[in-house]
Design a protein that fits this description.
The complex is a heterotrimer of chains A (254), B (324) and C (291). By secondary structure, chain A is of the alpha/beta class. Chain A is built from ten helices and ten strands. In chain A, β1 and β2 form a beta hairpin. The chains are: A alpha/beta (254), B mainly alpha (324), C mainly alpha (291).
Chain lengths: 254, 324, 291
């Protein structure tokens, strides 16, 4: 049984009358690639914000590597190895790709030249080497997603929280991104991803948690979860149920 | 890397060229012109550190100017301190005020328009205090007695002041250069461009902004101290009034914020413009500021990246054409 | 230092009359902020221009300030409409800072153009009723101030009626709430923006007519009014009309009492302290939505 890198216990957060997250507990094993899924508005991004310190929970706790980090500021969490990306990409638009990634690299590299050099290496890792000296504002959506990823990678994280890194990508771009994410996980980084793209979830995740209306309604392996009645019900009406069955059929050997 | 050294070289070149001006001319008019242009450049550069690189637009930068000016004057008048020592105090004091104001406003997450307004409010509070308190000479202001000597930081000709201000400008240029090529500067610009993204990758926005406002305040305070030495006089309106705040801001915007040379360029352009205006219309009160206001509006409407932005666009246009 | 209750009462009443005018000024600012989401830095300078307009009408044409309302109010409206449509609209380039800068630029031009034309002398006007005072309880309140109080409240009421009950008001509220949706419904957003800015400045025109008989004008008054107006708006809560009304009255009273206890200059600091304090500790103000 691998140890847990991130554990949350009874995490809750309300905004006025809206209960965004209700008593969610889960444990992310070290070295794993796992996913957090659920219909829109389920509270997934709020959960990420609570984990990474962008929001303080109303109750409950967050433990990273055995240490209670509940409500600790995001930049301190980054220093200790937890980095998150954003659903709506946030490039430093007026700076080049290299400069963007270098900001992440600077977390552990003080020297400017060394950080800029490290940025080059990481850009290559995510496939952004060609655009490395372009202003980040000129990248396509796919490019910006890669940049978001690269910047986070540059911080040498132990735990990477990816928020819908595939959203807005066309099928080919998704197909190109999946191996990149797998490569990151293979290099030893623990990855927890929020995803809607089921193809990726099925392909990548070893374990899946399902959030609906702020509550954890199911967890297990991808196929366990997609066959779970409660999960299908949560997604019912969005056409996902049909897609899940089709994906399942596509993976079953003829 | 290459561009880092090239920029450093351009700073050295600039300083060397300007340093030669007093060697080739004795004209008081020219020397005064260059000195005042440098003075305007210093104020603009100081503003640029917080506004251009930090992304926090201050409308009350005179706060730091006035603090430096009054410390410079009071240290000499009330405490008999040597002006060079007073200068050190003035710079430290205005940096401290910067840290104080920054500490309050950034701690509570003030940014954008609210930050601009609060800095203006602070400047106004200080102006009113300076008007009301005998310690600062109240409405009459403070005068430091004439006594020309190097030790007393008062020079018989504009030459001495020119070199003094050139020193300050060089310092400001070096600080700006450092911001462009250091980890701190990278962090500062990241916070400017996207604070949340910066936090997620390990940047502490509060510390970074605090550092910027401290540096900005210090340089602005040096400008205030310089003013007192050159004009031997300071009063609440000059010290904390909107005139100085606006001058610093407009020059930086016109030249191009967030760049190394933008503020210098903007200061020179505005200074030349003010001179031309003075020659055309005489000493009409307010005519300078009208021009500044109109220029500001026009630049924001048509050239938001400033005059320096044109240069940057031209450069990138040609470099793109050059690529295979 | 305790003051005789009569003096206190008088101070509070005076504060209320000034406060009503502050409220009117702040209402215009609130409208502009609520609809265009911009902080109009030129609000104070625009008031100053309106004051000079009222002044000139009196000195050159002998026109009574209250009778000047039908001229000054539409005039300021036109100025506001033009400013927004021609300049401010084109300056934003999508970034808030640019609006801040361009309204700052406009305020600089206004203030210094006034300095150029009128010099820096403080000017007042003399009317038949300038010195008349009316007794209210133990206090003697200057008639112009009472008229200002009533007038400001009436105009505020008219403004709220326009926004609440007319077609234009409906369009304004639609644009304020959901710009893109309003556009899709066929509302000319640029026009609504300009109308709102115009109305905001028209409020200043009215305020000027009420203010000048009891006050004065010089090129620098704008600066003082800007900060007071902003203090009222943030105190009341950005975008809240009711807040602007109550905030205005409150600030007026605080300023009056502050002046009583601390002297005029230091009393002004009270306002700035409120402003800074609210922004730091309760940015949503008394009635605004959470920022």
């Amino acid at each position: 049984m691998t140890r847990a890198l991130l554990t949350i216990n009874g995490l809750s957060k309300s905004f006025g009358g809206l209960k965004a997250v209700q008593h969610v507990s889960l444990s992310v094993p070290q070295g794993s690639l796992t996913a957090l899924i659920g219909p829109n508005g389920a509270g997934k991004t709020t959960l990420f914000a609570l984990m990474s310190g962008f929001l303080k929970p109303d109750s409950g706790s967050v433990h990273f590597d055995g240490v209670d980090i509940t409500g600790r500021a995001p930049h301190i969490n980054a220093v200790h190895g937890m980095t998150r990306t954003f659903q709506i990409v946030q490039p430093f638009a007026s700076q080049t790709v290299r400069e963007n990634i270098a900001v992440g690299a600077h977390l552990h590299i003080k020297n400017r030249q060394a950080a800029l050099l490290a940025a080059e290496r990481i850009a290559a890792q995510v496939g952004l080497l060609k655009q490395i000296d372009q202003p980040a504002g000129e990248l396509t959506v796919a490019g910006r997603k890669r940049l978001e990823l690269a910047r986070a990678l540059a911080t040498q994280p132990r735990l990477l929280l990816l928020d819908e890194v595939l959203a807005g990508l066309n099928p080919q771009e998704i197909a190109e991104m999946i191996p990149v994410v797998r490569g990151i996980a293979d290099s030893g980084i623990t990855v927890l991803m929020i995803e809607h793209v089921m193809q990726a979830v099925m392909n990548l995740a070893a374990h899946v948690w399902v959030l609906a209306q702020g509550q954890l309604i199911a967890q297990g392996s991808p196929s366990e979860v997609t066959h779970n009645e409660k999960v299908v019900e949560a997604y019912l009406g969005h056409g996902t149920a049909a897609r899940l069955r089709a994906a399942e059929l596509a993976r079953t050997p003829a | 890397m290459n561009s880092t050294l090239k920029e450093l070289g351009s700073i050295v070149l600039f300083v060397a060229v300007v340093a030669c001006v007093p060697l080739v001319t004795d004209s008081g008019v020219t020397l005064n012109f260059v000195m005042m242009a440098l003075y305007a450049a210093l104020l603009a550069q100081a503003w640029n550190i917080l506004g251009g690189f930090g992304g926090q637009f201050s409308f009350g930068h005179a706060l730091f100017f006035g603090t430096g000016a009054y410390i410079q004057a009071i240290a000499q008048l009330q405490f008999g301190l040597n002006p060079w020592l007073a200068l050190a105090l003035a710079v430290t004091g205005s940096a401290a005020i910067g840290l104080g104001v920054g500490g309050l406003t950034f701690r509570y997450g003030l940014k954008g328009s609210y930050f601009a307004l609060v800095t203006l409010a602070f400047a106004e509070v200080f102006r009113i205090l300076a008007l009301s308190v005998p310690f600062t000479g109240a409405g009459v202001g403070l005068m430091i007695p004439l006594s020309e000597s190097f030790a007393n930081m008062q020079f018989a000709s504009r030459k001495g002041y020119l070199y003094l201000m050139l020193g300050f400008v060089a310092a400001a240029l070096l600080v700006t250069w450092w911001l462009k090529h250091s980890r701190f500067g990278a962090y500062l610009q990241a916070v400017r461009d996207n604070e949340d993204a910066a936090r997620a990758i390990g940047v502490n926005p509060f510390n970074v902004k605090l550092g910027a406002i401290g540096l900005s305040g210090a340089l602005m305070g040096a400008g205030g101290a310089f003013y007192v030495q050159v004009f031997q006089y300071i009063d609440p309106g000059i010290a904390f009034g909107p005139g100085t705040s606006v001058e610093a801001l407009v020059a930086a915007i016109v030249g191009g914020i967030g760049t190394l040379w933008g503020p210098v360029l903007g200061a020179v352009v505005l200074h030349v413009l003010a001179d031309i205006t003075r020659n055309m219309f005489g000493q009409l009160p307010g005519i300078n500021m009208v021009i500044y206001g109109v220029v500001l509006v026009l630049i924001v409407m048509f050239l938001p990246r400033g005059i320096g932005g044109i240069a940057a666009s031209v450069k990138s246009f040609f470099s793109k054409r050059g690529k295979p | 230092m305790m003051f005789d209750p009569g003096i206190l009462f008088s101070s509070v009443l005076n504060g209320l009359t000034t406060g009503a005018v502050y409220a009117l000024i702040a209402l215009g600012l609130t409208l502009i902020y609520g609809v265009l989401h911009i902080i109009n830095f030129a609000h104070g300078a625009s008031l100053m221009l309106a004051l000079y307009a009222v002044y000139m009408l009196k000195e050159r044409f002998g026109m009574d300030p209250y009778l000047a309302l039908p001229l000054v109010v539409p005039g300021m409206f036109a100025l506001g409409y033009a400013l927004q449509r021609v300049i401010i609209n084109r300056a934003s380039h999508g970034k808030d800072e640019n609006i801040l800068l361009v309204t700052l630029g406009i305020s600089i031009v206004m203030e210094n153009a006034a300095l150029l034309f009128f010099k820096s002398d403080t000017r007042t006007i003399d009317t038949a009723y300038t010195l008349t005072t009316i007794p209210i309880g133990p206090a003697m309140i200057a008639l112009p101030k009472l008229v200002a109080f009533a007038g400001a409240l009436v105009v505020s009421g008219v403004l709220l009626w326009i926004v609440g009950k007319t077609d234009l008001g409906r369009a304004i509220r639609a644009v304020a709430k959901e710009k893109h949706g309003a556009k899709l419904m066929g509302i000319d957003v640029d026009h609504v923006y300009a109308m709102s800015f115009g109305i905001g400045l028209a409020c200043l025109g009215a305020a000027a007519c009420f203010l000048l008989p009891a006050y004065y004008v010089n090129p620098q008054v704008g600066g003082g009014f800007v900060l007071v107006a902003f203090t009222v708006v943030v105190l009341g809560g950005m975008g809240s009309f009711g807040g602007a009304l109550i905030g205005g009255l409150l600030v007026g009273v605080v300023e009056s009492l502050g002046g009583l206890y601390l002297g005029e200059s230091l009393g002004q600091i009270g306002i700035f302290v409120i402003f800074i304090g609210v922004l730091l500790f309760r940015p949503q103000g008394l009635f605004g939505a959470k920022v």
